[in-house]
Amino acid sequence: MRQFDLAPLYRTAIGFDRLASMIDNANRNEQTQNGYPPYNIELISEHAYRITMAIAGFDKSEVSINTEQGMLTVTGNKKAEETERQYLHQGIAARGFERKFQLADHVRVTDASMENGLLHVDLVQEIPEAMKPRTITIN
């Protein structure tokens, strides 16, 4: 993996340390996560997004979705089966997982649903009025 030297950014910009830490976290997460479960990130509209995760075999009660300090965490923990099964081939993963997504400022989760083994998490970016562009009239 490439290493980025962010020293020039620190010398000329004030307040971008959060950006640098996000790059470091993304690099660390990419190295530690194994790609399970697979997921898509869709742009629904200008300020709406959807994360779709393939979590076949999981029940709603075995999946939790949390947001804290700009981080969305989706966790799945399979319940122990009461009966012992003997598989000839096991291609459906039944292991637990934890997938984290860094959220931009003012992005919040609006809905979550499960359908046909797919978990859908809907997000929206709500820009406060104070941050929206405005026209200043000249007196």
Automatic annotation (TrEMBL):
User: What CDD domains does this protein's entry cite?
Assistant: ACD_IbpA-B_like
According to the record, the signal peptide region is: none
Q: Which UniProt keywords apply?
A: Stress response
Enumerate the spans annotated as SHSP domain: 30-139
Q: Carries keyword Protein transport?
A: no
Q: Is Coiled coil included in the keywords of this UniProt record?
A: no
The family note in this entry says: Belongs to the small heat shock protein (HSP20) family.
Name this polypeptide is given: Hsp20 family protein
